[in-house]
Amino acid sequence: MRIRLAILFLALTALPARTEEAREFTLSAPPEIVASGLLDYILPRFALKTGRRARLVEGAADARLGPAGPGAAPVMARGQALYALDLAGDNDAAHRFADWLGSEVGRNTLASFAPTDGSPFSAPPEVVQEAPAPVEGDAALGREVAHEHCARCHRVAPGLTAMTLGSTPSFAALKTLSDWADRFAAFYALNPHPAFLRVEGISPPFDPARPPPIVPVEITAAEAAALRAYVAGIPAADLGADIQSR
């Protein structure tokens, strides 16, 4: 019996200790933020909500609050100044603080703080995405060009069952590429099109030493622009995952 208890004791003590979740993190902030009293206001509220506490330090820290540089996602604003939170390492409490600042509760807490001096704090302004520039061209004409010339290799419309080359992507699949508009703007210069297709006034003549392998196609610049306008109206295919451009 004693031998069994001894073996059990050794087995239990050999088990790795469970990693405790961090409940404290270090935080550094610019002097103007510290002097404003903002941290004295929001940190106790964060601790009350999450049970995690911040310890202010100077220099290296688990989380560093500072002016938002180019490309950084700001977490708060004060007037025209934007501040970002830079996380170093995987301290769970620091990550919770970042999540809390971005939550509705965190944003409301920032807005409710009234500094005795200077501008109030607020959530960062939302970035407004600019609408893409409209694609110019006659889409109806582009549809005719696609069915007459492109359908021999591509599936040019959703649901089209005509025979195509299996190695060529459909127009709907090409629409999933982030640079689809650029591709269709210069498709005539991308292989294999120059071997058999010319755009009037733009493409060079065919090389007499290398004649087109199929019946050549010649279209106008207006028809090329119309084709791009037609593709702009085709919904992108649902491929189930991002298409990989090679």
TrEMBL record:
Alphabetized Pfam families for the sequence: Cytochrom_C
Record flagged with keyword Iron: yes
Keyword RNA-binding: no
UniProt cross-references to InterPro entries, sorted A to Z: Cyt_c-like_dom, Cyt_c-like_dom_sf
PROSITE patterns: CYTC
Assigned keywords, A-Z: Heme, Iron, Metal-binding, Signal
Domain of life: Bacteria
Protein name: Cytochrome c domain-containing protein
Species name: Albidovulum salinarum
